[in-house]
Structure formats: C-alpha cells, structure tokens
C-alpha cells in the first residue's frame, strides 16, 4: 500500500554538513584522535566536499566562528566552489570564553552583553564575505541554581540583545535561533524550548526563525508535533539533525531512532517544508569514535532513506482512512511506508544521476582516508573543550 517516490521528489533533498563534524571531538572524558583529521577550515571543507561528491546530497557546509576563522574568506569560498560545494550557515559561539561563564546575550553586565553582541555583528560581517544566508544563534546561557539570577530580567536582556543583532542583518539574511532544554546550564536555560525561541523570533520579525535540534528535548517529547506546529506558523527555519539515547548525544541521525526520524520527515513533507530552501536541513553531530567522513556519509544517507520512506506514504489512502475514522487502517498505511525497503530505489536513483549506487562503499574504496592519514599530521579538535 505504499507509493513510489519520483526522481524529482527525491532530488529536492539538500542537507548541510557541519565543519565541526570533521574535527576530532569527544566527551569530557576523552577526545580520541582520528588519522587524517583536518588541520584547518580548508581541509574541513575538502572533507565535506567528499560527502557531496559521493552522495550528491550535501552541497553546503556550515561554519563556526571562531573555530573556522580564516584570514581570507574569499579564498575559503573559492576553495569550496572549486570542490563543488558552497559555504552555508554561520554559527556563533559565546560559550568558550571565561567572560561568558554567567551568560552572554543575557549577562547582567552590559560590558559582557556588548562583547557577545559584537561577536554576532562580526559573524554577520563574515556572512557578507562567505555569501551565507543564515546566522545561527545557540546560547549556552542559563543558571545552575535557583535564585542565581532573575529569569525574567534575563529574558528582557536577551530580547534587547537579539534585537540589536537582528537590526544588523542584511535583507537577504536570516537569524535562526536554536533552543535546548538543558546543558551546560542545569537549573534553567534562557532559550529552553521551541516556545521561547518562537516568542523571540516573532518579536524580532520575518527574518527570524526557530532551529529545531532533534537532540534538544526532554525524553519522550513528540518532536514531529513541534515540526507540524512551527511549519503552521511559518517559523521553522532549520533543523539540526542528530540522534540521541539520553541527552544531547549528537550521534549519527537516524542511528538511535530511525522511526522518529521518519515521523519527523512525514510532518516536514505534510507541512510543505520538504524541499523548501527556507527550511534548512543541517546535521549537527560529533563523531567521537567513528571516522568522520564516513560518519557524515552514513548520516546523509540515513536522512535520504527516511525521506524516501516518507515519500512512499500513500497520502490519499491515509486521508481516506482518517476521514473514515479508521484508526487501525490509518496507522497501517503509515507503517507500510515506514516498512518499505527503499534501498533498491535509492541505488537506482543514484545511478541515474551518475553517482555511486553505494556511496559508503565507493568512498571507502576511493583511498581518500588513507591519503589524508598520510598527508595530514596533527589535526585539530572540533572546538568542544578546545
Ligand atoms: C549545542 O548543543 C547546539 O546543538 C548548537 O547547535 C551548537 O552551536 C553546535 O553544536 C556547534 O556549536
Ligand atoms: Zn544544534
Ligand atoms: Zn546540541
């Protein structure tokens, strides 16, 4: 009872990959090195380009300031273009400086807020040089203890700081505001949920949208509901895809719960967000123990599989079952789509585009990993804990 997705439908998938996924990362216990780790942003972009070359799915690379600071943005941009990709979202960072221990855009001291705002203005300047559309703001701001600071005043300061940054955006820029329910703050977080992000985005204006990171909710949260709601409101700006078992695990998307990923994509399609450039799909992952480039290839393929399954949904049959109040049939129609083995279809689709039928095997056979292990010595950490 499933339908077959068309090639044109499959072709609408675009996934942005994060520069930090190619650097070494780890936990607070240990950062394991990987042979061939990039030593600079140019090498990170080169690794990202391998993902696109083998899958045809990842044409842009998200950058992180200051982790990816370079002297010559034009050179990085040309380097990306020469390798067949483009520079994407610019991520700010106000969480790795002693000044930000008690907050950044929400900090009680005007001097620290000024510094955090200026950092975002610097990011906007970088966007002008990289040709990026989106400024992604994720804040570690929050408190650890009841009474530590005024929750309400922090919201007011946040609104004021965001307004100043928003006012500096060019007309073709967007601010995408990410929420996270806890960590590193453990008592309260200043943007803990989609509602708070939405409230600030709505106050800022049309160019501000919410970022939904799939690892940033309490266990058991119905994420597809949030997707449906934000799409209804025209405020879903981007996804950070990853998967989690416990907290913000940043594991490969689709690894922990492929059924949840499918359900999210079903709502994305139903709400008109699939293939809409205004709803940017981005990976936000850290490959702690697996090789980075294959980890990214696996991730984009997992998203592609979820999309192909969701596109296999017989929406006419589902609609009829819903109208008839046939609970069991509606559920069966949905599960039929999920149970569809889309791998042969995707292999055929790739071949028709001149791509390898099995991108993972093709990449592993290409010798790229061996080459970078030889050429690159002393690669860098992704930035976490750096
Ligand atoms: C942090 O938990 C978030 O997921 C952010 O998206 C963060 O900006 C990203 O992980 C890299 O800095
Ligand atoms: Zn994220
Ligand atoms: Zn996160």
TrEMBL record:
<dbReference type="InterPro" id="IPR050337">
    <property type="entry name" value="L-rhamnose_isomerase"/>
</dbReference>
<keyword id="KW-0464">Manganese</keyword>
<dbReference type="InterPro" id="IPR013457">
    <property type="entry name" value="Rhamnose_iso-rel"/>
</dbReference>
<dbReference type="InterPro" id="IPR036237">
    <property type="entry name" value="Xyl_isomerase-like_sf"/>
</dbReference>
<keyword id="KW-0413">Isomerase</keyword>
<dbReference type="GO" id="GO:0016853">
    <property type="term" value="F:isomerase activity"/>
</dbReference>
<keyword id="KW-0479">Metal-binding</keyword>
<protein>
    <submittedName>
        <fullName>L-rhamnose isomerase</fullName>
    </submittedName>
</protein>
């Amino acid at each position: 009872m499933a339908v077959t997705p068309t090639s044109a439908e499959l072709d609408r998938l675009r996934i942005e990959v994060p520069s930090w996924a190619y650097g070494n990362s780890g936990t607070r216990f240990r950062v394991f090195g990987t042979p061939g780790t990039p030593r600079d942003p140019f090498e990170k972009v080169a690794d990202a380009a391998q993902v696109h070359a083998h899958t045809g799915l990842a044409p842009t690379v998200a950058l992180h300031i200051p982790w990816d600071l370079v002297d010559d943005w034009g050179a990085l941009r040309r380097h990306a273009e020469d390798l067949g990709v483009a520079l994407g979202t610019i991520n700010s960072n106000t969480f790795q400086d002693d000044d930000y221990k008690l907050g950044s855009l929400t900090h009680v001291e005007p001097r620290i807020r000024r510094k955090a705002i200026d950092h975002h203005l610097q990011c906007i300047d970088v966007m002008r040089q990289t040709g990026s559309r989106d400024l992604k703001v994720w804040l570690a701001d929050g408190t650890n203890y009841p009474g530590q600071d005024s929750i309400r005043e922090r919201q007011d300061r946040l609104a004021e700081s965001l307004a100043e940054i928003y006012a500096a955006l060019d007309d073709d820029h967007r601010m995408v505001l990410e929420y996270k329910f806890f960590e590193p703050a453990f008592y309260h977080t200043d943007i803990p949920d989609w509602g708070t992000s939405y409230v600030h985005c709505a106050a800022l204006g049309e160019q501000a949208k919410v970022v939904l990171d799939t690892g940033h909710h309490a266990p058991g949260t119905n994420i597809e509901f949030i997707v449906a709601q934000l799409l209804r409101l025209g405020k879903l700006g981007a996804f950070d895809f990853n998967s989690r078992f416990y907290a913000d695990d940043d594991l490969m998307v689709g690894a922990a719960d492929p059924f949840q990923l499918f359900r999210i994509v079903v709502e994305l399609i139903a709400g008109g967000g699939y293939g809409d450039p205004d709803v940017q799909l981005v990976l936000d992952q850290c490959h702690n123990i697996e090789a980075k480039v294959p980890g990214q290839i696996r991730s984009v393929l997992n998203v592609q599989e979820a999309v192909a399954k969701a596109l296999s949904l017989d929406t006419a049959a589902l609609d009829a079952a819903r109208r008839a109040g046939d609970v069991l049939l509606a559920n069966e129609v949905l599960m039929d789509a999920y149970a569809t083995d889309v791998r042969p279809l995707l292999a055929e689709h790739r071949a028709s585009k001149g791509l390898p039928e099995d991108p993972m095997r093709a990449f592993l056979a290409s010798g790229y990993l061996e080459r970078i292990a030889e050429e690159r010595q002393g690669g860098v950490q992704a930035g976490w804990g750096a």
